[in-house]
Specification:
heterotrimer; A: alpha+beta; Cytochrome-c3 Hydrogenase, chain B; 3-stranded antiparallel β-sheet; 15 helices; about 15% strand; globular; B: alpha+beta; Alpha-Beta Plaits; two-stranded antiparallel ribbon; 4 helices; 5 strands; binds iron/sulfur cluster
């Protein structure tokens, strides 16, 4: 892109408080006129110390604190954790429970993708699409509420199974809801692929080539929109995905439009899988007994969250609390692509590019200690971390 | 490439009633599984305290007054509760359930945020500290 | 004799301060803002605000502290919203509002009115560049860029009816159009005028200057309290005057109060419909739109008018 050297080059901060971002994150955008010449991201405004907190709670309590890492993809966090812990304990979860887990995960994906569609439309100044997609999203929220009793943080998982069953009446409700949503989704696909004004904001914007996507380590729909074959549900099926396989959705173009198309097409996959699960729901128990102490060992649990691969590392020392839980959320993998792709675009495109990866900021926040002087590594205790935080903010206040 | 692809939605909404619900003027009936406030059944409880141990929010305190006489009391803090229903699942005796009728729990003072279940005299005894709470989670 | 002069003076003063100018105009502006918001909500299947919401907003803003940021010219900061509002109110004197004849009128007042209406964008731009805030600066640049792109086509579109009526006096044009729906003979001009008004008011899809997801509130980012309230009032006034002008010129006159409200609200509905249907344009795209299509359309319109005029004579 042609660059005009003027003295009008200055920086525009987007966040940590900004109407475009509903969560605190700081992007420092250097613009030359309207063209972005440099973008820097700073994480860590909503670091909550969840990983550390898990070490002082028992295995059961941790389901719920981990579920609250993300308000949108809460179920998948709990699922990743439960699958990992069950693997550690060597417990076999009944197939009906696994199927219900996947059912809820796909319903959650629908709610997440529709939510994203609205947010992305709003970023592009297309509030009508925003309002309608969120109106239709209520359908799936209501279904989730009927199934679990809560609209968010459904708490469907238990260690060793699930809490809630799906009966015929509920299944019928879900079928109806899905039928309605499928029609609407087709309409939204038409809108985002044919609306001339909207395409001006998405087609050819933020294009990421396949090799870029590979190098930047992107995951989820962001990667799949650049034709990267990466979907844990397909590559390493977990839970009931072995019995109810999903087809991967790919797109070659890599621009924002492709990300819209991939996410919307994934909705159709979700509808299909949900119908299939409801048609062939395995009979049997909802949960099995779980030991309170988990035998010593460590494991890795990978699942496909709506935003991409979610990674859990779980280590047990044989007691009723975990020794270490490490979470890597998809947004952290996708974040660098934003910084890379923004350069050369207009300032107006930056919010669109940010939102294109479907970011979830508070779940990707983590703390890194950079100590240039010593070049040593050190472990931090919870107490040291706390004291450091207090000192840091006292310094800032002064 | 088309212009105004949402024309159909917009024009059909023109004469349609808005979907926004006018809560609190109009309430819809909550689904049967809605997780509202907790209810406790004193008859079946055995005072094992598992519910309090597993509660992620330290919202439950179980007081054992007399195990043989089956005299137990339960304190519940709806303001801390995250309505996760883990206690309901943890209880092996089905003593806990969540109401789908009482769910508008906001209040202007804190008194309604501590609910004591159990016999009145038992609760008083329990609160007077005459008995040890067996719930580890209740330590604040 | 002297009492006549005083009476005259009082009547004009009342006309300027209360009806049909001043207060009445401000209230009408708020009413139209509410209709705008309510209609948009209806089109998006929402409820929308209650009828007093715009008034409540203004009262709330007036009651709030006005923060004057550091390093700005305080006089400009406080004065600019007032100039913008004064521009709108002055323009109202030449416009046949609510079915009444304009209180002042002279040959060429159309041009004066259009320029007075542009004062709003100009003040917005100046207000934005007056502060050091980066969002304001970007917003101000965009506001002024947009001003320069829509202004010429908008002016030409309003001059079309003037040309047809053979006068540059709003009152005379309005009398001329009373029996003629120029919408039929100058459809392109009408289209450009409506979209030009949307550009002037920075309504979606031409709201790049105040795109909240990019630059917060654009030029008005630093404004709070009274300044913001006055800017909002002047937007309301500009909206209603713009609607009046277009309705008077293109929709067969507004000398009947009932027709006035009917026609302006119908016009507002069109604008709201356009708002609902389109995604926001980037500033380069909207400038491109104006120069590539807007100007071209009016020029075609004018060419048609000249040819038609040639054929007729
Ligand atoms: S619902 Fe969850 S948070 Fe509430 S008391 Fe039960 S276990 Fe605790
Ligand atoms: S888990 Fe059930 S039986 Fe045990 S104390 Fe709680 S309510 Fe009583």
């Amino acid at each position: 892109m042609e660059k005009v050297q003027t003295s009008r080059s200055f920086t525009v901060p987007i966040g940590p408080q900004h109407p475009a971002l509903k969560e605190p994150e700081h992007f420092l955008i250097t613009v030359d006129g309207e063209i972005v010449t440099k973008a820097v991201v700073r994480l860590g405004y909503a670091h909550r110390g969840v990983e550390k907190a898990t070490e002082s709670r028992n295995w059961v309590q941790n389901i719920y604190i981990l579920e609250r890492i993300c308000g949108i993809c809460s179920h998948i966090h709990a699922t990743a954790y439960c699958l990992g812990v069950e693997k550690l304990a060597g417990v076999e979860v009944p197939p009906r429970a696994q199927a219900i887990r996947v059912l809820v995960a796909e319903m959650e994906r629908i709610h997440s993708h529709l939510l994203w569609l609205g947010v992305a439309a709003h970023e592009a100044g297309f509030d009508t699409l925003f309002m309608y997609s969120w109106r239709d999203r209520e359908t799936i929220m209501d279904l989730l509420e009927s199934l679990s009793g809560n609209r968010v943080n459904y708490s469907v998982n238990l260690l060793g199974g699930v809490k809630f069953d799906v009966d015929d009446e509920l299944a019928r409700l879900i079928y109806d809801g899905i039928d309605f949503l499928e029609k609407r989704t087709q309409h939204y696909l038409d809108v985002v692929t044919s609306d001339a004004m909207f395409l001006q904001r998405t087609r050819g914007i933020g294009t990421m080539t396949r090799s870029q996507a590979d190098v930047l380590g992107t995951v989820g729909p962001t990667a799949r929109a650049s034709n990267v074959y990466r979907d844990i549900r397909v590559e390493a099926p977990y839970g009931a995905y072995g019995d109810f396989p999903v087809k991967i959705v790919l797109d070659e173009r890599g621009d924002l439009e492709a990300r819209f198309v991939v996410r919307i097409k994934e909705l159709f996959e979700s509808y299909r899988v949900i119908r299939e699960i409801l048609d062939n729901l395995p009979a049997g128990e909802l949960s099995t007994r779980m030991p309170r102490r988990i035998q010593e060992g460590e494991t890795v649990s990978r699942v496909e969250a709506p935003r991409g691969e979610l990674f859990y590392f779980i280590k047990s020392n044989g007691t009723d609390t975990p020794e270490r839980i490490k979470v890597r959320t998809p947004t952290i993998c996708n974040m660098m692509s934003v910084v890379k792709l923004a350069v050369g675009h207009q300032l107006a495109d930056v919010p669109m590019i940010v939102v294109g990866i479907d970011p979830c900021f508070s779940c990707n926040d983590r703390m890194t200690v950079v100590d240039r002087g010593q070049g040593q590594r050190q472990g931090w205790t919870w107490e040291a971390l706390r004291r450091y935080g207090i000192r840091h903010y006292q310094r800032l206040a002064r | 490439m088309k212009l105004g692809t949402m024309f159909q939605d917009v024009s059909s909404s023109f004469l349609r009633k808005p979907v926004t619900e006018k809560y609190p003027f109009e309430r819809r009936t909550p689904p049967t599984r809605l997780r509202g406030t907790l209810v406790w059944d004193a008859e079946t409880c055995v005072g094992c305290g598992l519910c309090a141990t597993d509660c992620p929010a330290n919202a439950l305190e179980v007081f054992v007054l007399d195990r043989k006489e089956k005299r137990f009391a339960l304190s519940y803090h709806p303001d801390r509760c995250t309505f996760c229903a883990q206690c309901v699942s943890s209880c092996r005796h089905g003593s806990l359930a969540m109401s789908n009728e009482v769910w508008e729990l906001a209040a202007l003072d804190r008194t309604s945020f501590t609910i004591h279940f159990g016999d009145e005299t038992d609760v008083e005894l329990a609160l007077a500290g005459k008995t040890a709470s067996n719930a580890e989670a209740s330590s604040e | 004799m002297a009492s006549d002069i005083i009476k005259d003076l009082l009547v004009s003063l009342a006309a300027i301060l209360f009806f049909p100018g001043g207060l009445f105009l401000l209230l009408c502006g708020l009413l139209y803002e509410w209709i705008d918001r309510k209609l948009l909500a209806q089109l998006q299947n929402r409820i929308g605000p209650r009828w007093f919401q715009p008034l409540a907003d203004v009262i709330k803003l007036l009651a709030k502290e006005e923060v004057v940021p550091e390093e700005v010219d305080a006089r400009l900061f406080i004065g600019l919203p007032i100039v913008a509002l004064a521009g709108g109110l002055t323009a109202a004197l030449y416009v046949p509002f609510a079915g009444l004849a304009p209180s002042h009128s002279f040959n060429g007042d159309l041009i004066v009115t259009i320029y007075l209406l542009s004062l709003l964008s100009l003040c917005l731009g100046l207000a934005g560049s007056n502060t050091l805030d980066r969002f304001s600066l970007v917003g101000a640049t965009r506001t002024l860029t947009q001003l320069f792109s829509y202004e010429a086509p908008f002016l030409l579109a309003l001059l079309g009816p003037a040309f047809a009526a053979g006068s540059w006096q709003i009152q005379e044009i309005a009398t001329y159009t009373e029996t003629r729906w120029l919408l039929l003979s100058q459809p392109l001009g009408f289209l450009v005028a409506v979209i030009g008004l949307m550009g002037k008011l920075e309504l979606p899809p031409l709201d790049a200057p105040e795109a909240e997801t990019e630059i917060v509130a654009g030029a008005l980012t630093e404004y709070s309290g009274r300044g913001l309230a006055i800017f909002r009032l002047s937007k309301g006034v500009t909206l209603i005057l713009g609607l009046t002008l277009i309705a008077a010129f293109y929709l067969g006159g507004v000398s009947n109060p009932a027709f006035f409200f009917l026609k302006t609200i119908a016009l507002l509905l069109i604008i709201v419909g356009l708002k609902a249907l389109f995604a926001r344009l980037r500033i380069d795209q909207s400038v491109g739109l104006w120069w590539r299509y807007g100007t071209l359309l009016v020029l075609i319109q004018w060419l048609g008018m000249f040819l038609w005029g040639g054929v007729m004579t």
